[in-house]
Write a structure and sequence with these properties.
By secondary structure, the protein is an alpha/beta fold. Helix content is 19%, strand content 36%. A hairpin with a 5-residue loop joins strand 7 and strand 8. It is globular and about 55 Å long. 29% of the residues are buried. It holds the Pfam family Glyoxalase.
Length: 129
């Protein structure tokens, strides 16, 4: 349903290095740049894109209060790998990988700019007959 989302940064090169590592376990890679301040990432397996950008209005980027980006993973192992890559790249923990409901396995972290992200895997339960 979502085409793309943007994540603000105050240090463009640091953010690109960070997200190169975070998106790699999801098959995410740099796909194109828009100007010199917006880098788009995508995966062949997962629809949608995420862009890292410095604010257009030239004001400092600030994380939103209550805002969060959710990254879809194809397995629990992929959730664990993204979370580990994020922490190794400089993220701070906002919630270790684990079951949040009987169908939702997720992990939470903040990037170096303070933006909150969740990487999650949904387990589809069979319908009762």
């Amino acid at each position: 349903m979502i085409g793309y989302a943007t994540i603000g940064t105050n240090d463009f090169e640091r953010a690109r290095t960070f997200y190169d590592q975070v998106f790699a376990p999801l098959g995410g890679r740099r796909i194109f740049m828009l100007g010199e301040t917006m880098q788009f990432y995508a995966s062949r397996e997962i629809p949608g894109m995420i862009a890292i950008t410095t604010p257009y209005d030239k004001q400092p980027a600030q994380p939103s209060n209550g805002g969060m980006f959710g990254l879809t993973a194809t397995s629990r192992e992929q959730v664990d790998a993204v979370y580990a890559a994020a922490l190794a790249a400089g993220a701070t923990c906002e919630g270790k990988p684990g079951d949040r409901t009987d169908t939702f396995y997720g992990a939470y972290f903040r990037d170096p700019d303070g933006n909150k992200l969740c990487v999650f895997h949904l387990v589809r339960k069979p319908k009762a007959t």
